[in-house]
Amino acid sequence: MHGDIPPSPHDGEALHDTILRKLTYDLGKSRAGALDRDWFIATALAVRDQIVAPWLKDMRSTYEHGQKQVYYLSLEFLIGRLLRENISNLLLTTEVKAALASLDVDAAKVFASEPDAALGNGGLGRLAACFMESLASLQIPAFGYGIRYDHGLFRQVIRQGWQEEYPENWLEFGNPWEFARPEIAHPIGFGGSVEQVNGEDGEPHHVWKPAETVLAVAYDTPVVGWRGKHVNTLRLWSARAADPLQIEAFNRGDHIGALSDRVRAEAISRLLYPSDDTPAGQELRLRQEFFFSSAALQDLIRRHVRVYGSLETLPDRVAIQLNDTHPAIVVAELMRLLLDDHGMEWNDAWRVTQATISYTNHTLLPEALETWPVSLMERLLPRHMQIIYLINAIHLDTVAASHPGDLGLLASVSLIEEGHGRRVRMGNLAFVGSHKVNGVSALHSDLLKKTVFHDFDTLFPGRITNKTNGITFRRWLQQCNPCLTELLVESIGPDFLDRPAALSALRPLATDTTFQQRFAAVKRTNKEALAALIRREINLRVDPGALFDVQIKRIHEYKRQLLNLLETVALYNEMHAQPQRDYVPRVKIFAGKAAASYHRAKLIIKLAHDIARRVNRDPAIRDRLKVAFLPNYNVSLAEMIVPACDLSEQISTAGMEASGTGNMKLALNGALTIGTMDGANVEIHEHVGDENIFIFGLTTDQVAQRRAEGWRGQDSIDQSPRLQQALEALSSGVFSPDDPGRYRDLVQMLRDNDHFMVTADFDSYYDMQRKVAQRWARPAEWGRSAILNTAGMGWFSSDRTIAEYAQEIWQVPVPG
């Protein structure tokens, strides 16, 4: 009967029947009329049946045993496709493929028909997804809280080399993994006024009367850990108007105006990262951040009170982790809920708040450490501004008492910036309201203490700690590179599947000629698959035997795609000037999205296409250099590129990349890194060895020194004829004959104010790329280094990162 107990995990025949039953009774489709997408939904629902019982059991067990839970708050969760991940973690891959084959259905097409849930922009959101999977794999009870964006990050379309943005309709045909929870709907207030009234105890109490209320409605997705040992919950909030239709206005004939409240409310969860170039855009961004933060707190407090009663014990049962400053308003909102809704005294509420919250910083870029105009905060969240003012006053009184007369220190650590327009510093609020603050790589955490949080580190020694990021090996090795996984299991045994550190057993095989050949054969197979994708997507033929040189990440000036492109131009010029030389065939592969309002990043995308158009069509190059920009970068595209990469570009300006996780994924799959000593590159260098990574460029201290000395890009350009020639080609329109002046301002910026040190690092980068080519020309040496990269990456598992968070920040036991 439909809805009976799910089949056992190893019963392929029962899975066959369940999939067919889902197709028939849940989708109302026949086998003959079913599309690939229908088979995907039916299969997902059948697999979901395997998850629900353990999911409910694990949630019940958490409360029965009084376990402390982790609540991970993130504006982004870049989860990607889930079918392949879930069947892999449930050890059902063989059974599902067999069941689909028995139905004459192509499993690969079914997997490919799943929409990519683009609920994130890059590393921040993908890290959150990896952490959620590791929390489940380590059997740590956890909830992820975020927003169920209708459209997520935009779909990138390239037209004539320019990026255009379109909605990503990932929910167009529904989401079979989620469970709607309409009964869980928390009111989220905005605006209005705050009144002071006398309570029953005679003491004054504050009552916030919002002018507008939006409902946060829950949608739950189970998160399956490795081997199905534990299942956690990703709860995403969708915004709904409290009154979806103004009937009176509708009956008057104002059919559009009658929906205005609904449109305004639902805009909150409509789109990830709406442009904040305008005041309206800034307000929407702040509304999003408060919306999911308040919903998360109301939700976890409701659950805690129901099970445990007193909120005095909240830190004993709850650990809240803020993923960057987006949920920093949690500090003020938790105080409001404790003070106003639950009648707690200020000192007790502050103790509970600090002991419960911890904060992960992801950036040293000032523009990414969010600040909000005080005027906007006072209008949108008036009660929260009262609380922030009082937190700040008490905080500054304490600082002034220990450092009398130090006005500079007070200004530095204040929660309010008094400079050009008063603004609330969300990073400072998160720091003051947390018991631990962590960076995401050793270098980044050290720089936090030296730069943006230097004064806080002096005031609160020991509060800043490091937790170097990691990646889940289940997705970024086992699922995206099954051929390599099979080779590793055959060669060193399966221990690494459960204990990533066991990858070190691969080291002795790095010089084994037979193993090198088999390792290279796997890479070649993956490169052939990527070459086929490149041909399908952008109609470009590339040689799988060439060096695949990959830079895949968000387009940003500090990530320096521009440096890579300038080296491409210089190499192209050299091939023309000295055609007789024996050049290593190379395919430069780019992918990434630029923020919709980031005009210079979009110009860099156009430059990549202009260079590609000229280079790829030039017969004199004889196919020794190709440039490919793959559109609409997402998790699924990354899963194709990562296993096929030979050279991983991690070339950010030293001191500006907090960690990076793409560097880990690529190295794990046998790519060699070319990079600066920045972010987690520093630790990758330590783990793989100096001879197996290509480090170039200025160090963090050297970058800081040059900036302090007033260095100009022209200083480096004058010393580099090769760079001069490349820049002249850009500024004279060699690559943009339709618009010769397209890149003149970009070149002038490099001459006058090269803040990201592109010109300063150019010669070092170019020379290191020639060393890359020399190593590639010696296959045995390259193969040895590639194997040692994979062998050295065990430490970069997100399981290790989460275990460190659990033990050192959350005070949560790690089973086993």
UniProtKB/TrEMBL annotation:
Its EC number is 2.4.1.1. Pfam families: Phosphorylase. Keywords: Carbohydrate metabolism, Glycosyltransferase, Pyridoxal phosphate, Transferase. It is an enzyme of class 2 (transferase). Its cofactor is pyridoxal 5'-phosphate. It catalyses: [(1->4)-alpha-D-glucosyl](n) + phosphate = [(1->4)-alpha-D-glucosyl](n-1) + alpha-D-glucose 1-phosphate. InterPro entries: Glycg_phsphrylas (IPR011833), Glyco_trans_35 (IPR000811), Pyridoxal_P_attach_site (IPR035090). CDD domains: GT35_Glycogen_Phosphorylase. Phosphorylase is an important allosteric enzyme in carbohydrate metabolism. Enzymes from different sources differ in their regulatory mechanisms and in their natural substrates. However, all known phosphorylases share catalytic and structural properties. Allosteric enzyme that catalyzes the rate-limiting step in glycogen catabolism, the phosphorolytic cleavage of glycogen to produce glucose-1-phosphate, and plays a central role in maintaining cellular and organismal glucose homeostasis. NCBIfam families: P_ylase. Belongs to the glycogen phosphorylase family. This is Alpha-1,4 glucan phosphorylase. It comes from Roseococcus pinisoli. The lineage of its organism: Bacteria, Pseudomonadati, Pseudomonadota, Alphaproteobacteria, Acetobacterales.
